[in-house]
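Re: the multi-chain job from yesterday

Posting the exact lines I submitted so nobody has to dig through the queue logs.
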Amino acid sequence: MLRALGLGAVLYGFWLVLSGHFEPLLMGFGIGSSALVVYLALRMDVVDHEGLPVDLGVRFWLYLPWLMKEVFVSNVRVARIILTPGLPIDPILVKYHASQKTDLGRAIYANSITLTPGTITTWVDEDSLDVHSLTWIDVDGREEDEMDRRVSWVEQGVVG
Amino acid sequence: MTLVIEILSWASIVLGLFFMVVGTIGVLRMPDVFTRMHAAGMTDTMGAGFLILGMCLQAGLSLLAARLVLVYAFLLFTSPISTHALARAALAGDVEPYRKPRGDG
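And the result, structure tokens for all chains:
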């Protein structure tokens, strides 16, 4: 129930930011449409820790800046490869170990890998990921091990 | 102060355009579907990211900036999922990933 109310609050905040209307009538419509979406979500039975990971907590926000830095670094690396005349690529499919214990943690790790250019997650298993990489250098393991550790750290901050 | 923000804003927009153009060149130069996805990933992380950052600086602290941040947040959540789905579909369709030709086989 608390989670449903949380979902309603998030949806209504979202509605306010997108609409920019603060007249009483329109704000009432906003409450109505948020309530309708919460009702539909409850009927679909998707109001759980996956549909609304509010318990992800503060650690995710500490992880985000590091992820953006990684995204920037690999963007520059891929840009350099593209602009090099000989196109020095050496694509390979590799398997990574994933130490996360929950689906949410694995999803964060897999999406983080895909988000950084030069690596794409193609398959997710219980304790490993298949990753397609643009060059061998991208998969020497050091960077991914650090990402794996950091995502596990984010995951441990999840309560419930 | 306004001048500083203008300069930062335009520098960011130009940087975003640079990543967009390089990503597009990459899509054209790469040999197969998987490597092309790597190049396309640049356009929706840093390309769109710097463009939106530049637009946020233009908008200032306003509702408009909040909306732009939301646009980027949705992009960050959805683009890896579509990339992943595309890669899975290509693998399921038996597309052989390109390998660098080796001299000795």
